[in-house]
Amino acid sequence: MAKVVFSGIQPSGNLHIGNYLGAVRHWAKGQDDGLNIFCVVDMHAITVEQDPKVLRENTLSTAAFLLAAGIDQEKSILFVQSMNADHANGGWIANCNISMGQMSRMTQFKDKSEGKQFVNVGLFDYPALMAADIILYSTTHVPIGDDQKQHVELARDVAERFNSRYGETFLLPEPVVGETGARIMSLVDPEKKMSKSDPNTSASVFLFDEPDVVRKKIMSAVTDSGAEVKASPEKPGITNLLSIHSEFAETSMEDSERQMQGLSYGDFKSKVADIVVEKLKPIQEKYAQIRGDDNKLLETLRGGAKKAQEISHKKLTEVYDKIGFVS
């Protein structure tokens, strides 16, 4: 069985180093292992209200970042979800193979809908679209965080139910949890995960921050009243900075700790800032180059969508035939 890996990413203008170190860098490194499909999931994005101009910009920005970070269209498939109508059509098929009880147990809906006056059906129902995203490509592996495991399990349930009703059609995807980089924490509150939605912009190093901004944020990062640069549960701020250094330097935490031994907190932070600035520079330069010609970027994404649809439409045609649709 050929290995097929499907990874989705929400369009965002606020991607940060946690997104890069935790997922995207590993996606880029894994492109020689099977077929890798990367999708900017703009249809998922509209489950909450979006400004059309901002959504378009965030979609292009996210796609350009993936290319700048090493996603290679010669090895992999990169496309925008709305460019392939098979996802919406497959989402309806998934809907018809999910019970109300199953959908009601999706925990992320409760979290995302809390406190909102208007909650659209899409926010409740998007796990069905996510299931279609995955199973239309005969996906074997889905790299995810812990909070997404329930959605991959739902995709498996959809595949099993359809197979039981209509005969073997879909593969059962395996969630791949934990094969990612370190969990990067907030620079302001190192007990919390770094987040693009944090209202305090000093809490995150964004991928497009200028070098002086990166340095200022890291030099201002919360540490503690001690003096020893050492990773420990009692020193979450220092541990987080060591984690950032070790991830960018591609060394172990122990190696980073040894390199920083005897340094003051100020000198330690300066070393961390140096490597972050150094490693972000080529990504930022490549990103600027790609965004210099959005028409070419769109052409690249349309080419990716065409390749994606060659796979998904073959599967959807099989599905329609088994259901009894006239085509």
Automatic annotation (TrEMBL):
It is an enzyme of class 6 (ligase). ATP binds at residues 10-12, 18-19, 145-147, 184, 193-197. It is found in: Cytoplasm. One of its GO terms (cellular component) is cytosol. A motif ('HIGH' region) lies at residues 11-19. Its EC number is 6.1.1.2. GO terms for molecular function: ATP binding; tryptophan-tRNA ligase activity. CDD domains: TrpRS_core. One of its GO terms (biological process) is tryptophanyl-tRNA aminoacylation. InterPro entries: aa-tRNA-synth_I_CS (IPR001412), aa-tRNA-synth_Ic (IPR002305), Rossmann-like_a/b/a_fold (IPR014729), Trp-tRNA-ligase (IPR002306), Trp-tRNA-ligase_bac-type (IPR024109), Trp-tRNA_synthetase (IPR050203). It catalyses: tRNA(Trp) + L-tryptophan + ATP = L-tryptophyl-tRNA(Trp) + AMP + diphosphate + H(+). It holds the Pfam family tRNA-synt_1b. The keyword Aminoacyl-tRNA synthetase applies. Keywords: Aminoacyl-tRNA synthetase, ATP-binding, Cytoplasm, Ligase, Nucleotide-binding, Protein biosynthesis. The keyword rRNA processing does not apply. A motif ('KMSKS' region) lies at residues 193-197. L-tryptophan binds at residue 133. Catalyzes the attachment of tryptophan to tRNA(Trp). Belongs to the class-I aminoacyl-tRNA synthetase family. Homodimer. This is Tryptophan--tRNA ligase. It comes from Candidatus Woesebacteria bacterium RIFCSPHIGHO2_01_FULL_44_21. The lineage of its organism: Bacteria, Candidatus Woeseibacteriota.
